[in-house]
Here is the input.
Amino acid sequence: MSRRAPRPGPSAGHAALILIGAVALAVYALDIAVWVLLGFAPQAGAVLAGTPLSEWRSRTAWLPLLVVAASAILAYITLGARPSFRVGRASIAAGVLGVSAALIALATYWPCSQGQSPGWTAIRRALDLIRGNVNPPYAGGTGCVGTLPLGLQAAQLLMLSALGIVGWGAVALIFATRFREFRARSARAVVVISGLDDSTVGIVRRVRGTVPAPVVLVAAVPAGEPRAAELARDVGAIPIELDLLSPSAVRRFASRRRRDAVRGAYLLGPDAADNLRALEILRTAFRDPLSRPAFPSRAAVRIDDPWHADDWRRRHMAGDPDWLVDAVSAVEGAARHVVRELRGTGVELVVLTDASPFELAVLSELSFERRMSAVVPDPAGVAGFPRVALTGDRADEVAEHFTAQLARFGIGHPGIGCEVVRDPLDQVMEGGERAALLMSFSEGEGASRSTFVAARRPDWAIFAWSPNAHGVGPGPLVGGLTSVGPTLEPVDGHGVDLWDRFGRTLHERYVQLHLHGEPVVGDPARGRWDEDLSPFTREANIRSFLAAMRGVQLLGLRWATTLAASDARVDLAELSETEVEVLARAEHESWVEHHRAYGWRPGAARDDRRRMHPDLVDWDRLSPASRQKDVAAISGTLGLLDVLGFRLQVGVPAAGP
Here is the structure.
């Protein structure tokens, strides 16, 4: 079976930077080659310039040196724009400059040995460059020029630059901890990470890829945990010793900062209770009752039990105007990878034999993806979603529990075929459909049971849950048995949290409706979500959901995610034109606030390059056509939320998490 879709290649912007860096590096190498040639043959420059290039004394004599410096700086900056070039970049630069200086010095001194050993004399004199010394010219000697060669001056500057980089690196290494703490504590905007270890490094790496350059990623690591600090540096985060469960420590971290300084918090420790406490402490320390940020902070807390995670996110996603919160689960993460595997390999029937959290999470994920496809039609169509058969002694219990859970969230139909089957397992698995069997075990006997089944029926595709595994195994172990374990590694195309998934869904819907399903490659507004879209455009898509969730409060409504029989539910069709216009006005005000926060201004015509838009005015000054766009936008967003299981209800929303 194919395990994962290939990761997308570099974006057009990064590819252009790599090309520029490669050209600059080639120019630099050519310049050094010319200096080396002129060292061995100083008269070669006279062919073009009429005088040896190495002896130029005019102002233009420094032009080659300027080309060397410019090409070196340009290569250093552009090649460092790709993450794969960032590790050891300063060390590589120091080495390249030092080697270049040594080559030029050796070539210059080699012909001018004055009867001494050419090799040893050249090496000894080249080593003097480390001390910043340049031997005087040796006029009259065989092979020696009459003035100080410009190549030696270039070599001296290159060597001094290399030594400066090495010296700065040594100082930074000595004071690395203090420097990192100063940078983290003085940054105007940070994203805070906790619980960083080998199991969470994947999701943190994905978070790092979404953080814009001015924002600093800070990893709160326990004292005396060098592994966590090492992982933080590997993913581009700054490790600092910060106890997020200590209100006083967090208040000190928050002191002398703006209250919107924390742009995100990803609390990934294994203890869900600690993660929730840390979130509340952060929210309290960075709360400003006098102002509201243009775009809320993002937060994700780790709650591994999938039902607890789903319940918590639905109760708190719209509860705080200053924070967008979500729960991430290692069991849900494994379920998403399995569902991607099932759909990617054309499985038509998924057979569940137990009521473990893993199997229930797979069932929930299949249902959610099917409902999402009603918003953005999936290329695979309905046939791309397998049916689910519930077997075993607890089949009725699983069906009842799953139906009750969906009803509690106001979802009347799971979207997928799901039925209890009384037939023997062999008959279910060999019913003519391509089937996959899901099994769960903890240790010992359960593991043996799945192994025995796989050995007896090697033609069956079996996904067996093991808490000791990590994600979906690389291949079958026995027969068609694949081990599955908890993982927080994001699935390609799903983003880091549910808000990313919502935003991506809205963007894909826009692409299908207005671009015939083909994104404009390289376009920061109409391109591909992962490769092309700017942080501004991604936030703009997520902002639409946020505006709808906040806007209904103006109507005395709230978003209900748990419904009782007595709840006063409000259908979207019951909203009057006046109420829809109130929501459209709130959507427009949110849109204007978001654009202005990114420097957009009113203009006669839309100009993305100059950040100008004619609709950046008050609602009362909008044209009827523009108002209708806002009405259509809010209606579409409300419809998306309804499909995803959010319901309108009379009442005032509860406080945040």
Notes: The first strand starts at residue 190 and ends at 194. The radius of gyration is 32 Å. The mean pLDDT is 79.
